[in-house]
Amino acid sequence: MDVFKYLKDDGEAIAHRLNETVAEFAQWPQDRLFEESKKAFASLEAHFEKERMIVNNINDSEVVVPLSEKAEAQIKDMKEAIDSIIMIHIDEPGYLNALKNLAVKMNEHLRFCLDEYYPALADGLSAKDKENVNSQFENMVLS
Predict the structure, then answer these.
(1) In this structure, which CATH number among 2.60.120, 1.20.120, 2.40.50, 1.10.10 belongs to the domain 3-142?
(2) How confident is the model at residue 122 (pLDDT cuts 50, 70, 90)?
């Protein structure tokens, strides 16, 4: 399994779900908006765990450490955005704006991951670490 292709595809699917939910906000019924938002939030959390699993398999790296810090800051920011969205009722005006904000943050995170973070993570893994990551990743995805 190509871990980084999976993460790319997964990240793009999550970003698409968020962007589509924002775009269709006025047309979709509230129950669908709520379900799509809930699925996006859960998918984001699982996606972040997969990214962290890879980082946990890399020994200190002058390249990976600062990029991981940037990724963690972005993740923290998105988790805070999710926490604020959860506190807003779906029919309140602030919900759409908060969801748009989360979608923008996810799009930025995805661009960062594809352009910088994932390539650095791939370079930071030894052959043995790649085997270990693939095994752990398969367990995460298939469980």
Answers:
(1) 1.20.120
(2) confident
